[in-house]
Amino acid sequence: MGTFPAALIVRLIGGPTALIELGGLRLLTDPTFDPPGDHPIGRRNLVKTTGPAIPAEEVGRVDAVLLSHDQHPDNLDDAGRRFLDQVPLVLSTAAAEARLGGTTRDLPPWTGLTLPRPDGGELRITGVPAQHGPAGSEYLTGEVRGFVLSGEGLPRVYVSGDNASLAVVSDVADHAGPIDVAILFAGHARSPLMDAYLTLGGEQAVRAAEILAAPTVIPIHVEGWRHLTEGMDAVVDAFARRGLTDRLLILHPGDTATVESRTPLI
Protein backbone atom coordinates (compact mmCIF):
# COMPACT_ATOMS: atom_id res chain seq x y z
CA MET A 1 0.00 0.00 0.00
CA GLY A 2 1.25 3.52 -0.82
CA THR A 3 1.77 6.17 1.82
CA PHE A 4 -0.32 9.32 1.70
CA PRO A 5 1.33 12.74 1.35
CA ALA A 6 1.44 15.10 4.31
CA ALA A 7 -1.57 17.38 4.65
CA LEU A 8 -1.68 20.92 3.33
CA ILE A 9 -3.18 23.56 5.63
CA VAL A 10 -4.43 26.83 4.13
CA ARG A 11 -5.72 29.79 6.12
CA LEU A 12 -7.22 32.67 4.13
CA ILE A 13 -6.40 36.07 5.61
CA GLY A 14 -8.15 38.04 2.87
CA GLY A 15 -7.74 39.04 -0.76
CA PRO A 16 -4.58 37.37 -2.13
CA THR A 17 -3.15 36.75 1.33
CA ALA A 18 -3.14 33.16 2.55
CA LEU A 19 -1.01 31.28 5.05
CA ILE A 20 0.13 27.92 3.68
CA GLU A 21 1.53 25.24 5.98
CA LEU A 22 3.28 22.41 4.14
CA GLY A 23 5.95 20.01 5.30
CA GLY A 24 6.30 21.87 8.61
CA LEU A 25 7.05 25.18 6.84
CA ARG A 26 4.84 28.27 6.84
CA LEU A 27 4.54 30.32 3.65
CA LEU A 28 2.53 33.51 3.14
CA THR A 29 1.20 34.71 -0.20
CA ASP A 30 1.01 38.40 -1.21
CA PRO A 31 0.83 40.21 2.17
CA THR A 32 -2.03 42.71 2.45
CA PHE A 33 -2.78 43.87 5.98
CA ASP A 34 -4.03 47.45 5.54
CA PRO A 35 -7.48 48.53 6.75
CA PRO A 36 -10.03 49.61 4.11
CA GLY A 37 -9.12 52.75 2.22
CA ASP A 38 -7.68 54.35 -0.90
CA HIS A 39 -4.46 53.26 -2.58
CA PRO A 40 -3.40 55.75 -5.28
CA ILE A 41 -1.23 54.21 -7.99
CA GLY A 42 -0.25 56.61 -10.74
CA ARG A 43 -3.43 58.15 -12.13
CA ARG A 44 -5.55 55.38 -10.65
CA ASN A 45 -6.92 54.74 -7.21
CA LEU A 46 -7.41 51.17 -6.01
CA VAL A 47 -9.95 51.03 -3.19
CA LYS A 48 -9.64 48.39 -0.48
CA THR A 49 -13.10 47.58 0.87
CA THR A 50 -12.34 45.16 3.73
CA GLY A 51 -9.43 44.67 6.10
CA PRO A 52 -7.66 41.41 6.88
CA ALA A 53 -9.44 38.76 8.91
CA ILE A 54 -6.22 38.23 10.86
CA PRO A 55 -3.92 41.14 11.81
CA ALA A 56 -0.27 40.88 10.85
CA GLU A 57 0.88 40.51 14.44
CA GLU A 58 -1.19 37.33 14.84
CA VAL A 59 0.21 35.51 11.81
CA GLY A 60 3.20 34.14 13.69
CA ARG A 61 6.35 32.70 12.16
CA VAL A 62 6.65 32.83 8.39
CA ASP A 63 9.52 30.96 6.74
CA ALA A 64 9.06 32.61 3.33
CA VAL A 65 6.73 34.96 1.47
CA LEU A 66 5.57 34.07 -2.03
CA LEU A 67 5.11 37.52 -3.53
CA SER A 68 3.61 37.42 -7.02
CA HIS A 69 4.57 41.07 -7.58
CA ASP A 70 5.17 44.25 -5.63
CA GLN A 71 3.94 46.97 -7.99
CA HIS A 72 0.22 46.82 -7.13
CA PRO A 73 -1.12 47.60 -3.64
CA ASP A 74 -3.78 44.89 -3.81
CA ASN A 75 -0.91 42.38 -3.74
CA LEU A 76 1.44 44.25 -1.41
CA ASP A 77 -0.01 47.13 0.57
CA ASP A 78 1.69 49.41 3.09
CA ALA A 79 1.33 47.11 6.09
CA GLY A 80 2.33 44.20 3.88
CA ARG A 81 5.57 45.97 3.02
CA ARG A 82 6.33 46.44 6.70
CA PHE A 83 5.58 42.76 7.28
CA LEU A 84 8.35 41.80 4.84
CA ASP A 85 10.94 43.29 7.22
CA GLN A 86 10.45 40.35 9.61
CA VAL A 87 10.55 37.57 6.99
CA PRO A 88 13.84 35.73 6.29
CA LEU A 89 13.05 35.14 2.60
CA VAL A 90 10.77 36.79 0.05
CA LEU A 91 10.53 35.11 -3.37
CA SER A 92 9.27 37.25 -6.24
CA THR A 93 10.38 38.87 -9.52
CA ALA A 94 13.61 40.52 -10.56
CA ALA A 95 11.87 43.90 -10.50
CA ALA A 96 10.65 43.29 -6.95
CA GLU A 97 14.15 42.31 -5.82
CA ALA A 98 15.52 45.56 -7.28
CA ARG A 99 12.81 47.73 -5.74
CA LEU A 100 12.40 46.09 -2.34
CA GLY A 101 15.91 44.88 -1.54
CA GLY A 102 16.28 43.30 1.89
CA THR A 103 15.50 39.57 1.82
CA THR A 104 13.62 39.70 -1.50
CA ARG A 105 15.03 37.39 -4.17
CA ASP A 106 14.09 36.84 -7.79
CA LEU A 107 12.88 33.33 -8.55
CA PRO A 108 12.87 33.19 -12.37
CA PRO A 109 10.37 30.99 -14.21
CA TRP A 110 11.26 27.30 -14.08
CA THR A 111 13.98 27.93 -11.49
CA GLY A 112 13.75 26.06 -8.22
CA LEU A 113 14.90 26.77 -4.68
CA THR A 114 14.82 24.28 -1.80
CA LEU A 115 14.09 24.97 1.85
CA PRO A 116 14.94 22.44 4.59
CA ARG A 117 11.93 20.95 6.34
CA PRO A 118 11.77 20.19 10.07
CA ASP A 119 11.36 16.48 9.26
CA GLY A 120 14.69 16.38 7.42
CA GLY A 121 13.21 16.57 3.94
CA GLU A 122 13.08 19.50 1.55
CA LEU A 123 10.39 21.75 0.15
CA ARG A 124 11.07 22.82 -3.43
CA ILE A 125 9.65 26.14 -4.59
CA THR A 126 9.67 26.63 -8.36
CA GLY A 127 8.97 29.96 -10.01
CA VAL A 128 6.47 29.74 -12.89
CA PRO A 129 5.17 32.34 -15.35
CA ALA A 130 2.13 34.54 -14.80
CA GLN A 131 0.56 37.01 -17.23
CA HIS A 132 -1.27 39.85 -15.52
CA GLY A 133 -3.61 40.73 -18.39
CA PRO A 134 -3.86 40.11 -22.14
CA ALA A 135 -0.78 39.34 -24.22
CA GLY A 136 1.21 42.51 -24.88
CA SER A 137 0.08 44.31 -21.72
CA GLU A 138 3.22 43.46 -19.72
CA TYR A 139 4.64 46.95 -20.22
CA LEU A 140 1.62 48.29 -18.32
CA THR A 141 1.06 45.62 -15.69
CA GLY A 142 4.68 44.62 -15.02
CA GLU A 143 6.35 41.31 -14.24
CA VAL A 144 4.41 38.75 -12.18
CA ARG A 145 5.36 35.35 -10.80
CA GLY A 146 3.49 32.18 -9.89
CA PHE A 147 4.87 29.30 -7.81
CA VAL A 148 4.74 25.51 -7.58
CA LEU A 149 5.47 23.81 -4.24
CA SER A 150 6.64 20.20 -4.15
CA GLY A 151 8.67 17.71 -2.18
CA GLU A 152 8.89 14.06 -1.25
CA GLY A 153 5.75 13.03 0.61
CA LEU A 154 4.02 16.36 -0.11
CA PRO A 155 1.13 17.30 -2.38
CA ARG A 156 2.14 19.44 -5.36
CA VAL A 157 0.62 22.91 -5.00
CA TYR A 158 0.26 25.60 -7.68
CA VAL A 159 -0.09 29.23 -6.55
CA SER A 160 -1.10 31.17 -9.65
CA GLY A 161 -0.41 34.75 -8.62
CA ASP A 162 -2.25 37.38 -10.68
CA ASN A 163 -2.54 35.48 -13.94
CA ALA A 164 -5.12 35.94 -16.69
CA SER A 165 -3.73 33.51 -19.27
CA LEU A 166 -4.92 29.94 -19.77
CA ALA A 167 -1.90 29.41 -22.04
CA VAL A 168 0.27 30.04 -18.98
CA VAL A 169 -1.80 27.52 -17.03
CA SER A 170 -1.20 24.99 -19.80
CA ASP A 171 2.55 25.60 -19.55
CA VAL A 172 2.41 24.96 -15.81
CA ALA A 173 0.44 21.75 -16.35
CA ASP A 174 2.92 20.57 -19.01
CA HIS A 175 6.13 21.44 -17.16
CA ALA A 176 5.30 21.32 -13.45
CA GLY A 177 2.38 18.89 -13.17
CA PRO A 178 0.67 16.88 -11.94
CA ILE A 179 -0.92 19.45 -9.63
CA ASP A 180 -2.75 18.22 -6.53
CA VAL A 181 -3.98 21.60 -5.25
CA ALA A 182 -4.43 24.76 -7.32
CA ILE A 183 -4.65 28.05 -5.43
CA LEU A 184 -6.06 30.34 -8.12
CA PHE A 185 -6.16 34.12 -7.89
CA ALA A 186 -9.52 34.97 -9.45
CA GLY A 187 -11.92 37.91 -9.08
CA HIS A 188 -11.73 39.00 -12.75
CA ALA A 189 -9.86 42.18 -11.86
CA ARG A 190 -10.38 45.05 -14.29
CA SER A 191 -8.24 48.15 -14.77
CA PRO A 192 -9.35 51.54 -16.11
CA LEU A 193 -6.08 51.66 -18.07
CA MET A 194 -7.25 49.06 -20.59
CA ASP A 195 -10.45 47.39 -21.74
CA ALA A 196 -9.38 43.98 -20.46
CA TYR A 197 -9.40 41.71 -17.43
CA LEU A 198 -6.20 41.24 -15.45
CA THR A 199 -6.94 38.00 -13.56
CA LEU A 200 -9.01 34.86 -14.02
CA GLY A 201 -12.77 35.02 -13.75
CA GLY A 202 -15.03 32.14 -12.78
CA GLU A 203 -15.19 30.68 -16.29
CA GLN A 204 -11.42 30.90 -16.70
CA ALA A 205 -10.84 29.39 -13.24
CA VAL A 206 -12.89 26.29 -14.07
CA ARG A 207 -11.02 25.92 -17.37
CA ALA A 208 -7.75 26.22 -15.44
CA ALA A 209 -8.94 23.46 -13.10
CA GLU A 210 -9.65 21.24 -16.10
CA ILE A 211 -6.28 21.97 -17.71
CA LEU A 212 -4.43 21.24 -14.49
CA ALA A 213 -6.61 18.21 -13.68
CA ALA A 214 -6.30 19.39 -10.09
CA PRO A 215 -8.58 17.50 -7.68
CA THR A 216 -8.67 20.48 -5.29
CA VAL A 217 -9.05 24.13 -6.30
CA ILE A 218 -8.94 26.98 -3.78
CA PRO A 219 -10.02 30.35 -5.27
CA ILE A 220 -8.63 33.44 -3.53
CA HIS A 221 -8.32 37.17 -4.32
CA VAL A 222 -12.04 37.37 -5.09
CA GLU A 223 -12.97 39.93 -2.42
CA GLY A 224 -11.73 42.98 -0.58
CA TRP A 225 -10.99 45.34 -3.50
CA ARG A 226 -13.39 47.42 -5.59
CA HIS A 227 -11.70 46.62 -8.94
CA LEU A 228 -12.53 42.91 -8.57
CA THR A 229 -15.59 42.39 -10.75
CA GLU A 230 -16.54 38.83 -9.74
CA GLY A 231 -17.00 37.37 -6.28
CA MET A 232 -16.96 33.81 -5.04
CA ASP A 233 -20.52 33.20 -6.27
CA ALA A 234 -19.35 33.57 -9.87
CA VAL A 235 -16.66 30.95 -9.32
CA VAL A 236 -19.10 28.55 -7.66
CA ASP A 237 -21.62 28.99 -10.48
CA ALA A 238 -18.98 28.37 -13.16
CA PHE A 239 -17.80 25.15 -11.50
CA ALA A 240 -21.40 23.99 -11.06
CA ARG A 241 -22.14 24.49 -14.76
CA ARG A 242 -19.18 22.21 -15.62
CA GLY A 243 -20.12 19.63 -13.00
CA LEU A 244 -16.90 20.24 -11.04
CA THR A 245 -18.25 21.56 -7.75
CA ASP A 246 -16.60 18.66 -5.92
CA ARG A 247 -13.17 20.09 -6.77
CA LEU A 248 -13.85 23.43 -5.09
CA LEU A 249 -12.64 24.23 -1.60
CA ILE A 250 -14.22 27.54 -0.64
CA LEU A 251 -12.52 29.63 2.02
CA HIS A 252 -13.84 32.89 3.35
CA PRO A 253 -11.47 35.31 5.12
CA GLY A 254 -10.52 33.83 8.46
CA ASP A 255 -11.28 30.23 7.41
CA THR A 256 -8.72 27.42 7.72
CA ALA A 257 -8.88 24.14 5.81
CA THR A 258 -6.80 20.99 5.79
CA VAL A 259 -6.38 19.29 2.42
CA GLU A 260 -5.68 15.59 2.51
CA SER A 261 -4.40 14.00 -0.68
CA ARG A 262 -6.90 11.80 -2.50
CA THR A 263 -4.25 9.56 -4.03
CA PRO A 264 -1.42 7.67 -2.34
CA LEU A 265 2.23 7.96 -3.20
CA ILE A 266 3.37 4.71 -4.82
Automatic annotation (TrEMBL):
The keyword Hydrolase applies. Keywords: Hydrolase. Coiled coil: none annotated. It holds the Pfam family Lactamase_B_2. SUPFAM superfamilies: Metallo-hydrolase/oxidoreductase. One of its GO terms (molecular function) is hydrolase activity. Residues 26-221 form the Metallo-beta-lactamase domain. This is L-ascorbate metabolism protein UlaG, beta-lactamase superfamily. It comes from Nonomuraea jiangxiensis.
